[in-house]
Amino acid sequence: MLLELKDLTLLYGRIQALHGISLTVGEGEIVALIGANGAGKSTTMRAISGLRAVAQGSILFDGEDITKLRADLRVVRGVSQSPEGRGVFPGMSVRENLEMGAYTRRNRAEIDEDLDRVFTLFPRLKEREKQAGGTMSGGEQQMLAVGRALMSRPKLLLLDEPSMGLAPMLIQQIFDIIVEINQQGTTVLLVEQNAQQALSRAHRAYVLETGRIVKEGTGQELLHDPAVKDAYLGVA
Q1: Domain of 135?
Q2: Mean pLDDT of successive 10-residue segments in the chain (236 residues)?
Q3: Cys-Cys crosslink for 79: which of 74, 152, 173, 221, Cβ 3.0 to 4.6 Å?
Q4: Cα–Cα dist 125/235, whole Å
Q5: Does the predicted TM-score (pTM) go above 0.70?
Q6: SS3 state of residue 53
């Protein structure tokens, strides 16, 4: 397994946000984590990327225990996150934002290679290469956030709500690009409120409710599960 969470518990002060969750992500997979607002999805992502300390349990990545490893060192190991809310650097150009994603790397030729890859995946970013990140539309900023995460050449790409606030046409486009990124060899863990889009593309998925995993299965199994349909897909 590329990623393994074992009995992960996380606290915000006295509030328990995660209650002993366990999940796995195999190399080459797209795994989706779905659930309502406040279920603990983003908290799980922050725990994996090292932005929140865990109270109990362990995080194994590529066979190594990274539970107590600093966030920047996790990026070096191959874990990269595109955060909820995008978090682009507003005063920096598109190119400068992308270069920031490669801050742990030194090989200029490989960095240029990955810039080309990002511009191929997102032609709009190439067109806006010199434009300030903060002046772009929401969809363009989302592309920039994903592109920046790819610039560290991750083994595991963490995507937190990539479709949030986007127009339906752009949502479709973002998900198609996620599949393409995966087909190019990057493993993806996807947190998403748009359960229909996430489950239709995920190899496997987990349902999170109030900090607990309540269901797991293939994307297709959960897509056709009556309880999941009722709770997350707006159909009985």
Answers
A1: 25-52+69-232
A2: 97 92 97 93 95 96 96 94 84 95 91 95 94 92 92 95 87 92 96 93 96 96 94 70
A3: 74
A4: 37
A5: yes
A6: coil
